[in-house]
Write a structure and sequence with these properties.
The protein has 971 residues and is α+β, with helices and mostly antiparallel strands.
């Protein structure tokens, strides 16, 4: 290793020290010692330079030298220029001729200058009597050094800091004890006390340690941040992959296991809210739109439903095979009672506590919901008092599997003449004696009515609405004809056969109150009045529905039918329509409907579904707005509605009005459009009386008109729409263009255009349709202009958006004002381009209102009959409302857009208003106003409630084996 130029003697007038060492022994230690000596005593960083000691200048020759010869001139000059000689004493140094020459030269020329010894190896002993080193015991002293010292010198032991265990000497000298040793060498050179240098070095060491700790902390933090970022990215990619896999599996399981499909969709969204997981929830919400809850039957190891019943006050009950538990539940929150438990042994007799075995053939609630009755194979009729905590009540062994409960619970009627065997009820042969069994639970007595005839079979019974008769559905087994017979409870006799009512088609079931019986004839369902035999209400069965169950409600309007393929439909016999409620994976086992027709219970072998024909989980029917024509949201989540000649503002949470116009303010006026001010304190409406249009500005709380202006004063004949800008200026779309109106009602300038405008809810941007492009090819392009209002009410220069060969049919601004949404029809022309030859495409285009550049295309397959749409904040999702359903369109996403089934029996949406978050939509139709929930988080909550929770640990391990921890999918 060659010397740096700055280390040569001619570069300095003198050196502070000359290090003499044996290359073979201290090649690594000598440079490390030189470096450390130069750093000692230099002061702390930041110390004033005038107060700092100058850095030591130390000569160190690192060149290879021949084995013998004289000292070079350079070494001699360096020795002469040095104030101190530092000898690294070692056995190799004692044998080195060069080191001996250096000491001889020093003794001859610089005897008065100090010599410092650093012991680096071997033995070093001092002879006090001779005042010299012991020649025999010391193997580290060069010959020329003997006799140099008059008294014992102090030397520094550096042996512990030479290269050991692969530790470099420079690193070893950083250790705390080495600081003391180096300070002992540096103190004579500096002419300072050792204690002063040690104190300074300790302070500098603490400073350096702090800096080093800070540096290492930064290194660790940066490393952790890099690792964490990489880990987060890996986790995000893994979560995305799992989310997509779960969403795909949800679609696969939808038909076979809708509960599992719903849980998978929720888990996919909880892992990552991607368009795929959101689509899965959209599809499950549509599938479960009428479902209140779904129950898997896993009681006592059985997976089979046998009987089910719906009672009043949201109660329902179900049971399983072979004496499984009967459960009574409340459809809303949490009421659940276990009434019947199978015994430990089949040989054990039924106990007084309700233990028994055998299938439950039928369940029925009393009219007031206080009692539950059940017929059990082999054990007759049993009852439980639900008002008394489910305590078991009277029971009898003589009642068969089919029965009816009187409204006052005083009698239970069932077909009689039936033998009760261990295997269950068995008809006697011949059928003679098939009469009635009437059980009085309070008295415990059973009365038998005589047989109807030798060849008549009673299939079902019911009490009449007045409670005076028992109605029997009797079938002639020879002629396969059915008739309705009645047992008079007062006279205790059957009414004459000539008073029997012949039933057309196939009679299926009584309504809960016995007032009607549902029959199936050909492909139609109709009701027969049990009092006079009149027929009313007729509805066609759904396509390809092989009826496997039919129940009628007491309202005389609603029936529910179960098909052999698992589909369940609610039938409206007045309107002739039917509503798909649910589709089971297997054949329907049981059907039950509440008296009011509001709840339907259906089961297959594995699942029970409680559905509500009149309720849709996707929206709420508002109790107001039946005659509404337009709606709009303000910034506080309140909904303004135009109802013929009235203006009202409602709270969307409690559905109560918070502000209304006075009846006289709008008498004779048909309100067409409204717009809230950006702060929500004012609103502006457009109304028409006959052919006269007017613009009315209102103050809120209470709703009071401030000023109004007619279309004539605005230089127009018709007014179409209005928007209030952030400056308070009103922009009014007319048949002559867009007219500006001041906050005080003074007409302003006209904006050139075709009378169509759009503004964001905060009024920061105004878009006007200058050229619609409908008259192509005469107008070769459509032009939209965007302006921004200033605080003084002036508008900026327009930013033009040009669309060649296109027609802009409608436009809107996203809630955050960052995106302009255009409903565009692109034309195709004849070969010569002279005439329009139809549409090339239609869809929604998103444009940047600041730059006038197109951002993306959404909804390329936009529904042709769409009457409105709702955008979220940045228009990343558009939801269109059309007669064929509700369609969800996502930006830059290919494939078919997910769609909800249309809930409208007739007509189309008249107006659609989206909240400013895009999570709610008010849809006005001829049938009324509905409030749609478009928030995926709300869908998640609804699906968790319907599916009774999220994925179980077993299901999670099956569908997401790469993730050991089950996330919280349901909040």
């Amino acid at each position: 290793m060659r010397l740096r130029e700055s280390e040569r003697s001619e570069d300095y007038e003198h050196y502070d020290a000359f290090i003499s060492y044996a290359t073979a022994a201290d090649r690594a230690l000598a440079p490390a010692l030189r470096y450390k000596l130069r750093s000692v005593g230099s002061g702390l960083p930041g110390t004033n330079r005038r107060r700092r000691r100058p850095q030591l200048r130390i000569y160190l020759d690192q060149r290879s030298t021949p084995a013998s010869g004289e000292l070079s001139d350079e070494l001699k000059r360096a020795l002469d220029a040095s104030r101190t000689l530092i000898l690294l004493a070692s056995p190799q140094a004692a044998e080195s001729a060069w080191i001996n020459h250096e000491i001889e030269w020093w003794r001859e020329r610089n005897a008065s200058r100090p010599v410092l010894i650093a012991h680096t190896g071997g033995k070093l002993r001092w002879d006090k009597e001779a005042s010299d080193f012991k020649r025999v015991e010391s193997d580290t002293v060069p010959p020329a050094l003997y006799g140099f010292f008059e008294q014992e010198p102090k030397w520094v032991d550096l042996r512990p800091y030479k290269r050991r265990w692969l530790v470099h000497p420079r690193i070893a000298l950083l250790l705390s004890p080495a600081h003391n040793a180096v300070c002992q060498l540096a103190a004579p050179v500096y002419g300072e006390k050792v204690e002063v240098l040690i104190k300074e070095e300790r302070r500098r060491r603490r400073w350096n340690s702090s800096l080093f700790a800070l540096f290492m902390a930064m290194v660790v933090f940066v490393g952790w941040a890099v690792w964490k970022g990489a880990r987060n990215e890996a986790d995000a990619q893994e979560q995305l992959a799992i989310s997509r896999a779960l969403a795909h599996r949800s679609a696969e399981e939808a038909d076979q296991d809708p509960v599992l499909a719903a849980r998978l969709a929720v888990a996919a969204y909880a892992m990552e809210p991607t368009p795929e997981s959101t689509t899965a929830m959209i599809q499950r919400m549509d599938q479960m739109r009428h479902v209140q809850l779904i129950q898997d039957h896993q009681v006592d190891g059985t997976v089979s439903f046998v009987a089910a019943a719906v009672g009043p006050d949201n109660l329902f009950a179900f049971s399983g095979r072979d004496g499984s538990t009967i459960e009574v539940r409340d459809a809303d929150p949490s009421r659940r009672e276990h009434l019947l438990t199978a015994p430990v042994s089949e040989d054990a007799p039924p106990g007084a506590g309700g233990e028994g075995w055998g299938d439950i053939d039928q369940l029925a609630f009393s009219a007031d919901g206080r009692w539950l009755f059940a017929s059990q194979s082999g054990h007759g009729m049993r009852s439980w008092n639900l008002a008394d905590g489910g305590r078991e009540g009277p029971h009898t062994d003589r009642i068969g599997s089919t029965f009816a409960v009187a409204a006052d619970t005083s009698l239970i009627a069932a077909p009689g003449g039936i033998d009760i065997a261990d295997e269950g009820p068995v008809l006697a042969e011949p059928v003679g004696g098939n009469g009635l069994e009437l059980w009085d639970p309070e008295r415990g007595s059973v009365t038998t009515a005589p047989s109807l005839g030798p060849r008549l079979r009673i299939d079902d019974v019911a009490f009449s609405t007045d409670g005076r008769r028992v109605l029997a559905l009797a079938t002639d087994i020879d002629r396969d004809r059915a008739a309705l017979r009645a047992w008079d409870l007062r006279r205790r006799q059957w009414l004459p056969p000539d008073e029997a009512i012949a039933l057309p088609g196939t009679p299926t079931a009584f309504s809960p109150d016995g007032s009607r019986i549902a029959t199936v004839r050909d492909t139609r369902v109709e009701f027969v009045d049990t009092r006079n035999g009149s027929r009313h209400g007729r509805v066609s069965l759904p396509a390809e529905c092989d009826v496997y169950g039919l129940k009628a409600a007491a309202d005389g309007r609603t029936a529910v039918v179960g098909c052999s393929d698992g589909r369940v439909f609610a039938l409206d016999l007045r309107s002739g329509s039917h509503t798909a409620l649910f589709r089971h994976a297997e054949r329907i086992g049981n059907l039950a409907i509440s008296s009011d027709g509001r709840r339907v219970l259906s089961t297959d072998e594995q699942q029970l579904a409680l559905t509500t024909p009149g309720h849709d989980n996707r929206f709420r029917r508002l109790p107001w707005g039946a005659s509404a024509s337009q709606a709009e949201w303000d910034d506080g989540g309140r909904l303004g509605v135009l109802e013929q000649d009235r203006i009202a503002v409602y709270d969307s949470k409690n559905l109560k009005p918070v502000d209304r116009s006075s009846p006289g303010d709008g008498r004779g006026t048909n309100w067409l459009d409204l717009a809230f001010s950006p702060d929500g304190h004012r609103l502006t409406t457009i109304g028409v009386s006959g052919d006269a249009y007017r613009l009315v500005h209102w103050r809120r709380d209470p709703l009071t008109p401030v000023w109004q202006i007619t279309a004539d004063r605005l230089g127009a004949r018709e007014l179409h729409s209005v928007a209030e800008l952030s400056s308070g200026t009103l922009a009014v779309a007319t048949d002559k263009g867009v007219r500006l109106v001041s906050r005080g009602g003074r007409p302003g300038s006209f904006l050139k255009g075709e009378g169509t405008l759009a503004a964001d809810p905060h009024g920061r941007r105004l878009a006007t349709l200058t050229v619609s492009g409908y008259e192509a090819p005469r107008t070769p392009e459509a032009v939209v202009e965007v302006r921004e209002p200033s605080e003084k009410g002036q508008l900026s220069a327009p930013v033009p958006l040009r669309l060649p060969d296109a027609h802009v049919a409608d436009l809107a601004m996203s809630p955050d004002g960052s995106t302009l949404i255009l409903y565009v029809v692109h034309w195709k022309f004849t070969a010569d381009g002279a005439e329009r030859d139809g549409e090339r495409s239609r869809g929604m285009e998103l444009w940047d209102p600041q730059t006038g550049q197109q951002k993306s295309v959404i909804g390329g397959n936009w529904p042709t009959g769409s009457q409105g749409w709702v955008a979220d904040g940045a228009a990343s999702r558009l939801v269109s409302f059309a007669p064929e359903g509700v369609t969800f369109h996502y930006v830059d996403r290919g494939g078919p857009a997910p769609r909800w089934t249309s809930p409208w029996d007739s007509g189309t949406p008249l107006a659609v208003a989206g909240s400013r978050s895009g999570h709610q939509a008010a849809v006005v139709t001829a049938e009324g106003t509905t409030l749609w929930d478009l928030n995926p988080e709300r869908w998640r909550t609804a699906l968790c409630r319907i599916a009774d929770g999220g994925l179980t640990t077993r299901e999670w391990q099956e569908f997401a084996p790469r993730r050991s921890e089950l996330p919280q999918t349901c909040k």
